[in-house]
Design brief:
The complex is a heterodimer of chains A (738) and B (292).
Chain A (H helix, E strand, L loop, with lengths): L18 H5 L15 E7 L5 E7 L1 H4 L4 E6 L8 H6 L4 E2 L5 E7 L2 H8 L3 E6 L6 H5 L23 E9 L2 H7 L2 E9 L11 E6 L5 E5 L4 H11 L7 E5 L15 H11 L3 E4 L2 H7 L6 E9 L5 E13 L6 H8 L8 E9 L13 H19 L3 H8 L18 H9 L2 H4 L7 E9 L4 E9 L5 E5 L7 H13 L6 E5 L16 H28 L6 E4 L2 E4 L10 E2 H6 L1 H4 L4 E8 L5 E11 L6 E11 L6 H20 L30 E6 L20 H14 L10 H11 L1
Parallel strand pairs in A: 1-12, 10-11, 14-15, 18-19, 25-26
Antiparallel strand pairs in A: 1-5, 2-4, 2-6, 3-5, 7-15, 8-13, 9-10, 9-12, 13-14, 16-24, 17-18, 17-23, 20-21, 21-22, 24-25
Chain B lengths: L3 E4 L4 H13 L4 E4 L5 H7 L5 E5 L9 E3 L3 E5 L4 H5 L2 H6 L1 H8 L4 H4 L4 H7 L6 H7 L3 E6 L2 E6 H4 E3 L2 E2 L6 E8 L4 E9 L10 E9 L5 E9 L6 E2 L1 H7 L6 H14 L10 H25 L1
The chains are: A alpha+beta (738), B alpha+beta (292).
Chain lengths: 738, 292
Amino acid sequence: MAEAVDLKAIGTRPVRPDGVEKVTGRANFGADLNLPGMLHGKILRSPHAHARIKSIDLSGALAVDGVLAAVSGKDIPGGGDLGDNVLANEKVLYHGHAVAAVAARSAFIAEQALDQIKVEYEVLNPVLSIDDAIADGATLVNESQHTNGDTSQPASNVAAVTKFERGDVEKGFADADVVVEGEYRVPTAHQGYIEPHACTATINEEGKATVWCCTQGQFDVRSMTANCLNKQVSDIRVIPSEIGGGFGGKTTIYLEPVAVKLSEISGRPVKMVMSREEVFRATGPTSATLCRAKVGAKSDGTITAATAWLAYEAGAYPGAPVGPGCMSVLAPYDLENFRIEGRDVLVNKPKVAAYRAPGAPQSMHAMECAIDDLARELDMDPLDLRLKNAADEGTVAPYGPQYPAIGLRACLEAAKVHPNYTTPPAEGQGRGVAVGFWFNIGMQSSAEIRIAENGAVTIMEGSPDIGGSRASMCLMAAETLGIPYENINAHVGDTEATGYCNTTGGSRTTFATGMAVIEACEDIIAQCKERAALTWELDVDQVDWEDGQAVPKPGVNADVKPLSLADIARSAGRTGGPLLGRASLNAQGPGASFSVNWTDVEVDHETGKVDVKAFTGVQDAGRAIHPSYVEGQMQGGAVQGLGWALNEEYIYDADGVMENAGFLDYRVPVTSDMPMIDTQIVEVPNPSHPYGVRGVGETPIVAPLAATSNAVRDALGFRINDLPLSPPRVLAAIDDNE
Amino acid sequence: MGDYAYAAPATVDSTVELLSSSASSGTRTQVLAGGTDVLVQMRSIDRGPRLIVDVKQLAETNVLSIGEDEIYIGAAIASAILNENAELKSKLPGLIESADLIGSTQIQGRATIGGNLCNSSPAGDTIPALIANSAVCHIVGADGERDVPVEDFVTGVGTNCMADHEFLLGLRVPAPKGNTGDAYLRFIPRTEMDIAVAGAGVRVTLDDSGTCTAARVGIGAVAPTPLLVPEAGDALIGTQVDEEALNAAAAACSAAASPITDKRGTVEYRIKVVGVLCKRAGAIARDRAKAR
């Protein structure tokens, strides 16, 4: 690992390479591509939350003047659940489930033509909550779904049960002086990305398709689209646009196979753009959850046992993030006795997708509320209680691995002396504390470094930039090569232009793709040393690379001037050809990132409105490559977490129709709702990364939910277990309490 | 969007003629001032074809006069213009605040009080403030001109008393005399860019001893139409507009409310909060009246 001393580029805050294009409106997003002869595709969606499809007749739509193609579920032959979600086959499983699609000369004609498609349904009872789904005799979302695939048991809406256990929980609780427990509900929340899903597809007579779309992972779009259409990945080229927000929601596909199929039938390019309403009704939010947490401790604060029972709504197909919820729920604590049980529960709602630290905010909301109650029972400072039980280097995490160096203790200690913490909340306000965690991932990345004739550096990599990662790549390259940041540009290539990269997600890009960039730079340095050695007629091991230039090693007797990258690039034709560095890897040891958040709130006792007056986040970044973007992640995650805590929720009617499918009534916070989100970066380097990087993008959304709940608890003097803490819920609780 | 036609007649007479002829021919017609509701509805709620008749080019809908007895606000005057008129803000701060609550700065460059009224939403923010201020709608149509008090204008959710051949020219607001003050408050879960869960507008006039001699209270988002609550006004008249009187007015507002439970709030919540808003707006109106 590189020493902390003497970093020149890393830790500075330069302008991002993609900034000018974005602020001037030149950058192209998903809906910006138009091609000659292009058609517009639109989707017919289910009016029922649960129904059997008896028949689909597309002929009426095809008869409309200007309509050139129409498709239904049978046109998407592969992909399993994913394909069935893209276009339904036997059953529609949620209101808004895609049933058919048309392509026409205008979007308006396409929309009108949808009305001419005849679908016969046999309407079924919808399953709309965890309680309904797990009740005896519940209607089955999928009649052939058995828990954990065990067909010896009856079919169930519980797709999977996960368990982690250690020690003797019953003895642990028996040894406790204080035991607290609670049941907590967190509602469905959407990522709320500003840019709706959009793509344009075209396919030629050889069956080779090109797809332009906004995505967090062009390679996954390629494989998922290929699977849905029973094609080979090599038949499809995916070109990612700039992305107007993803937060995990753009790690899957909805439109792409439909657009390719409509293009195949019509012989024209087809563009499809979702409306905001479609985004809400038919793309994956994250799970609504029902969580139970129980913690016992000695009077000195030592936790003796903890249990978590977690049930997560998966939507219409298995795959709720309950596994990560289980992994996260007790991750901050060093425990002898615990039991964690998770359930992946099918309901007739959209299939959930990843959302920033998928699953962790919900389970940790429950546990961090319980820990807060425990601190009150013990009359301990909530930071002290956590310090007493904090996981540290060497602790075996509840989910298995032994932690290497982690920054939880450093964050707690930084919070303890932070002026925003040592200053008590203002009169009438309440303060809440919570800890956040995300394990982060590594996985596969590739990168190429290309050196132009003038020594300018181009990084070509395959990780869509959703949080300033191109700037981070340039900074790590500048540091490694020893050249100015301004001499480097970074590009995100399409599936034919760059080596394979896993999707941008799991806070992996700056860590894993960054490692590939660093290794590719080291490859360039090795080549430069060889070229210099050749030029100077020295052995390559007599050459060093210092401050962006080749120099003879100390003690080597050579009367030569140092050769800069530009010098070597200029004469590359004479020393072996262009300079091209490359690296590909499967990155290990991503390094968990912990955070501590606290917030001060004021509650209007007559209207139930919660005003967030102050918020501070402290988080371990390992090493902040571009501190402004680390702070931006911390602030953005906090705002999303606060929005979820305060007002965001899916509201369904009794038939399973979402009533607030728009930003007017799905209330993400507006800027004036938020206080300054104060940040402090803690740096406990990740031993697995050359510069110590830990992923930082997801952890920030985790703790704000419980921090807000705990602050409202402090302000009111009693706890409201469920989120959101919307004015009607808070006022009703105040009235009930009086 | 579907096919639609657009017309911007140059005179009031030709506007009335166009509205009359399109009504008699059965053409679906919609009057547009700022368009901040109409355009959203055309894109997201009902995309069917229609004739749009733009009235913001007319001189008569752009009159803004602040007289001794009456303040006249043309139906097409953008909120941004009202918000920046210092004299208007000092005379009718509550009404102007109600307009300033609607939409972002950009939207307010187009949005109008007249349009907010004609959209006739139960939650229209300017309507309770207009009712509290005894505002009167100045309407023109094939049968000539007529005046209708704002509290009688809205007839149901999204409907009003105007015939197909009529449109709103402007609003007549009695100029405040002596120690008069108004205020409007709404409740939204956010700080801006939202729709009222409940709203209350209050106007009071005090005599030299601080006793209330006139008071009107309008409430919104708690019934199919915005309402005048005479009992709330009566509860303030003859008092010092103190806490006891304000509580009585609040109770009258809660009693007058007949809200629904929907995605924006429950029946119980709205009944309670409309009273809270009346009480708080009443205190602001009283303090403004005293400061005159």
